[in-house]
Amino acid sequence: MGRSHYQASGGSDVATLVEEIEQTGDRLAAAVEALAFKKAHLKDELIEIAEEKADQFLEKAEETKDQLVAKISDKIPDRRELKEMASKAVAKIGDSAGEAKDTVVEKAAEAKDTVVEKAAEAEHRIAAVAAERLPEAKEAASDVAEKMVDTVSRAGETAVNRLRRPRHPAVSPTPDN
């Protein structure tokens, strides 16, 4: 019904309008109260849902952390494996040192053999050169020896001649005077 109906009916309609307004006010108050109750109830539900989601997130994070720790733990060698790795490293170093020592000894032996070989070659070359020049050396030595013999012979003859001849005419070894 429209407004024109209320205005046409007069005074009794005003009471009805007041009553309807009061009833509408009561219904609005009941609706607001219901909305407030619903709002409080929804707020509690949202808080509960948020707490559940937070718990789920924390549980997932804890699971992820546990998985990561497990993966990392699997990658980290245990004490026995570390000892084995250390032993292998020490053995490799020992092997390397032993190999280095063996190599040094081998190289030293090779160097010694090379020096001995070169010395033998030098000795053979010297002997070959000496053998080549031996006749020259013998001839030179013979010439020197001959010259020395000649020189010594001449010196001896000169000494004998001097002894046989007097140095001064007044002194004579024989009584010819």
Could you walk me through the main structural features you see in this protein, from its secondary elements to its overall organization?
By secondary structure, the chain is mainly α. It has three helices and no strands. 89% of the residues lie in helices and 0% in strands. The longest helix has 86 residues, at 79-164. It is rod-shaped, with a radius of gyration of 69 Å.
Task: Please supply descriptive tags for the structure shown above.
single chain; 177 residues; mainly alpha; 0% strand; disordered N terminus
Gist of the model:
The protein has three helices and no strands.
Q: Topology of this protein?
A:
Elements lengths: L2 H7 L2 H64 L3 H86 L13
Helix-strand makeup class? mainly alpha
The largest sheet is: none
Give the helices and strands as they follow along the chain: HHH
What do the pLDDT scores average to? 76
Approximately how much helix is present in the residues?
over 70%
Shape assignment: rod-shaped
From the N-terminal CA to the C-terminal CA, the straight-line distance is: 212 Å
Which segments are poorly predicted (pLDDT under 50) over 5 or more consecutive residues? 1-9
Percent of residues in beta strands: under 5%
Q: Compute the gyration radius: what is it? A: 69 Å
The total strand number stands at: 0
- Provide a count of the helices: 3
